[in-house]
Design brief:
Layout: E1 2-4, E2 16-20, H1 28-43, E3 47-54, H2 57-61, H3 73-83, E4 87-92, H4 95-98, H5 102-114, E5 118-122, H6 135-143, E6 148-152, H7 154-158, H8 164-172, H9 176-183, E7 188-194, H10 199-202, E8 208-212, E9 223-231, E10 234-243, E11 255-260, E12 271-281, H11 289-308
Parallel strand pairs: 1-4, 2-3, 2-5, 3-4, 5-6
Antiparallel strand pairs: 7-8, 7-12, 8-11, 9-10, 9-12, 10-11
Helix pairs in contact: 8-9
Amino acid sequence: MQLHSDINKLPTIKKSIVTIGTFDGVHAGHRTIINRIINLAKKRNGQSVLITFEPHPRFLINPQHRLKLLTTLEEKKSLLEKLGLHHLVIAPFTKEFANQEAKNYVEDFLIKKIKPSVLVIGYDHHFGKGRSGNFNLLKQYAEQGHFQLEEISKQLVEDAHVSSTTIRKALELGDVREANNLLQSNFQLSGEVIIGDQRGRTIGFPTANLQISSDKKLIPPNGVYAVQAFIKNQCFSAVMNIGFRPTVTDTPELRLEVHLIDFDEDIYGENLKVEFIERIRAEKKFSSFEDLKKQIELDCERASEILAN
């Protein structure tokens, strides 16, 4: 997959099959559209092109909305590449871009810069100042011969029974399995392993403290999770605790700690990715460190069972 971040220096892509959107999560509904442009590109001996925006438009249009992302830009890149996309265009979403009239968006951005051969959009696609542009406006330009236009029907998208909002709600409830089913991939977090207070080592369960790469990323609710941990191109079974560690400290600081089962190497400063598989339990305060240790042993056993299946 070729990555393009300067929209003023885009290469000429012949027979480009283009779609546009935020694609947060790259979920099942998104994949209906993405698979369509990839298949059209194969049939027409062309190339698939996906245009997305950075930052997410809602952060600029409605800054009071506390949106949490299902996927960071880096995660989105990785997911799209795995799907077999040819080109990913990352368009900067600025106030100037958001405030351009819909016709200017089509003429100056789409036609002059992107030059689509075929444009494929979702049934509710809107663009331009005040979201005034829609399928009908694009149809006028298609009839003038600027590009071919295809709209993915509401029925086809809704057959996937999924939206980014639905997935966020599932994750906020800790229903990781449902979220993964809707995403068609495992929900993930990634970041740098930083030095913690190393108390896990004192009870035989060393943990990697994770500092995630974006403060806009959605974090599942506090609790213990069975996860797969990826580091140095290797996958490990692991248990992740998200919470304030009430047994250990009264300090109200959220920690993301990952215990890699049967692993005890120094990985400080490394990038660690975790993929969530299932929530095991809620966070709990124990009466002693010994009780905490026994529970962690049970958590590791349960996680191993889940991951083995």
